[in-house]
Amino acid sequence: MTRRLIVMRHAKSDWSRGLSDHARPLNERGRRSADALGTWMRETAQAPDQVLCSSAVRTRETLDRLALPDAAVRFEEALYLAEADGVLRVLRHAKGQCVMVLGHNPGLQEFAARIVGAPIAHPRAGDYPTGATLVADLDIEDWTDLDWGTARTVSFVVPRELPGV
């Protein structure tokens, strides 16, 4: 059975308000980027049936602006600034056919690089900028079977490549 994984870093956040890291919202560019990513996901049929989202304000706002249809959402404190191994642990509890993880760097970049069997052929995969999104397929029966190097890259996009950003 093939499962699909979407690994998205939150859109650009606002550093100007003097808020704690967890409380930072998106800035204007981040809002445009999240809107464009949502349009891209809907137009390319990349709609997850489950979303595992960091509890931070900027990830929640990114998710809201994606306007995804009918995905079961679980906010995970463990994804806030999680390292790659932490992301893997959370994903092993997923239940959906197509699951999106929405979180932070540097953990997501490392997770994305380690989960695919071959390097991601995109010049920005190495730094995983805000809004970067990996779509990958896995031949696994259950998310408990997820392991490093088991995914195949389907696509990788950054917001600046999308219309409206």
Helical content class: 25-40%
Query: What gap, in angstroms, lies between the N and C termini?
Result: 36 Å
State the assembly state of the protein chains.
Answer: single chain
Strand order of the largest sheet: 3-2-4-1-5-6
Estimate the strand proportion: 15-25%
User: Spans of 5+ residues with little confidence (pLDDT < 50)?
Assistant: none
Radius of gyration: 14 Å
Secondary-structure class: alpha/beta
| Gross morphology | globular
What's the total count of β strands? 6
Give the H and E element order. EHEHEHEHEE
What is the count of DSSP helices, taking H or I runs of 4+ residues?
Answer: 4
Query: How is the biggest beta sheet arranged?
Result: 6 strands, mixed
Q: If you average the pLDDT, what whole number results?
A: 94
Describe the structure in brief.
This protein is 26% helix and 23% strand. It has 4 helices and 6 strands. A 6-stranded mixed beta sheet has the order 3-2-4-1-5-6, sandwiched between helices.
